[in-house]
Amino acid sequence: MKCIYYTFLFLLVTLMSCSNVSQPSDPIPEHETFKIQSKQVGEERIINVWTPANYKSNTDSLPVMYMADGGTKEDFPHIANTLAKLIKEHKIKPIILVGIENTQRRRDLTGFTEVAKDKEIAPVVGGSEKFRAFIKEELFPEIEKRYRTTSEKSIIGESASGLFVLETFFLAPDLFDNYIAFDPSLWWNDHYLVRTAKEHLAKFPSTDKRIWFAGSNAEDIAPFTKELAALLKSENRANIKWRFSDEPKEKHTTLFRATKEKAIIWALNKN
Question: Which CATH architecture has domain 2-268?
Answer without folding.
Answer: 3-Layer(aba) Sandwich (3.40)
